[in-house]
TrEMBL record:
Organism: Spizellomyces punctatus (strain DAOM BR117)
Pfam family, one: DUF952
Domain of life: Eukaryota
Name of the protein this chain belongs to: DUF952 domain-containing protein
InterPro entries named among the record's database cross-references: DUF952 (IPR009297)
Length: 151
């Protein structure tokens, strides 16, 4: 993937509090590699966001949550396993995915797309460079709270 500007320094995984608690229940010392949430399993990759996308994704898909957990991941940990692709609707069929791939090629060529990072592989949760941040939803959503974070 070539970038018009420099690649992101950090990528983000948004989790619900219950998804985060489920992770904490696992003994990460014995099982540090994580393949994502149930949605990630269904779609075949771990959904990630960049700093610009994360507040939008949080407000769009987690509006029913009073708080979320934001996992900050250095891009250098993932760069060999991340593909930047068009967003894929949850549970999209293989035919829908193929159509998205075709549209993606055209949009990338024209510079019109907003590509999302998708991790194809496991995430090593034992990496010391990972950071966890709890973000509270305000009356207007997560954007306000997230705007105060150090990206």
């Amino acid at each position: 993937m070539s970038f018009k500007s420099s690649p992101p320094t950090t990528l983000y995984k948004i989790l619900t509090v219950s998804e985060h608690e489920e992770l904490q229940l696992k003994n990460l010392a014995f099982e540090p590699y994580w393949r994502g949430t149930s949605l990630d399993h269904t779609d075949g990759f771990i959904h990630l966001s960049n700093a610009k996308q994360a507040p939008i994704v949080a407000d769009r898909f987690y509006q029913d949550q009073p708080e979320i957990v934001l996992l900050k991941i250095p891009y250098t940990l993932l760069q060999d396993s991340v593909k930047f692709e068009l967003p894929c609707p949850p549970g999209a069929s293989p035919e829908e995915r193929l159509k998205l791939k075709e549209a993606e090629s055209k949009e990338v060529e024209n510079g019109e797309s907003e590509l999302f990072p998708h991790l194809y592989g496991e995430l090593d949760l034992s990496a010391e460079s990972l950071e966890w941040e709890i973000v509270n939803r305000t009356e207007t959503g997560f954007k306000e709270s997230m705007s105060r974070l150090k990206w």
